[in-house]
Write a structure and sequence with these properties.
Number of helices: 9
Largest sheet: 7 strands, mixed
Pfam families: VWA_2
CATH architecture of the largest domain: 3-Layer(aba) Sandwich
Domain VWFA: 83-283
Organism: Candidatus Methylocalor cossyra
Oligomer: single chain
Protein name: MxaC protein
Number of strands: 10
Shape: rod-shaped
Structural class: alpha/beta
CATH topology of the largest domain: Rossmann fold
CATH superfamily of the largest domain: von Willebrand factor, type A domain
Length: 327
Amino acid sequence: MSLGFSEPWALLLGLTAALPWLRRGQRALAYPAVPWLPADPLSTALDRLLRGAGAAVAVLLAVALAGPHLREQWVERIGTGAHIVLLLDRSSSMNENFTGRSLGAQAAESKSGMARRLLAEFVARRPHDLFAMVDFSAAPIYVLPLTADRDAVQAAIAAAGGRGHGVTHIAPGLAMALDFFAGKPASGARVILLVSDGAARIDEETRDRLRQGFQDTHCTLYWIYLRNPRSAPLSEKPANPNESTTPEYFLDQYFRTLGVPYRAFEADSPAALEQAIAAVDRLENLPLPYQEKLPRRDLSPWCYGAALALLALLVAGKTLEVKAWNA
């Protein structure tokens, strides 16, 4: 830890600590023959104690006026969690509810609203994770870098509350999410949490580039697939496989070839979505080194407190001072 002073010139006032040793603070009493006084080691020790206390008070007050503080610093902590990029689908289909209807139908909350609410709860349960956020529809939107600021993360999730628009184009969003980890030393688990209700065809060149990005960053991928009744389950091969009509199935098959840990969670109801996010919460709890910034710490109250205690000692000594010799 590094010590600093806001007003270092005030330390010069500490030179007044020499005054108690140059002048006697007690009242001088006349005595006809000082050499006849018997030796009094206790009085000598008390005299030195009071002089030292007076000098210490002067030093402490000078230091306090100089504004002593411990400078801000970064310290390494070991938490339990991960570096998580929240990749949230903001396409127009996210405005629907789990019945496949638009807002105002049987369900009171859209898939987007439900996802944002549960993601906010997910973030609140994980105090040591670092979170980033990317929204996407036809194109990705950079929302928030990796940060431990929970207020900023919650605000970013809440800001995704407007109506979605455009189509679902996952590949650019995945590329932007991978950029958060590209070229950086690995520290703890790395996770991309994709929340989407659809997919789109990805060309072969982009597939190869994304696959290489996942392998270079050693990033785990979780896909929470918000399936409505019109969509087929990922686990069932379509009767007539076609990447244009059933892109979710082909996207799931592609994710399985990335060469990194991957898991898909199918959520076809609010309860299923909640269970999927809870499952991710249980999966990623690995040791996570991270840097925490400690703010500047003011030390002047400690100096004033110590000076006050020593002043109390000086006042006590003054009250015990003999005012006159008893005849």
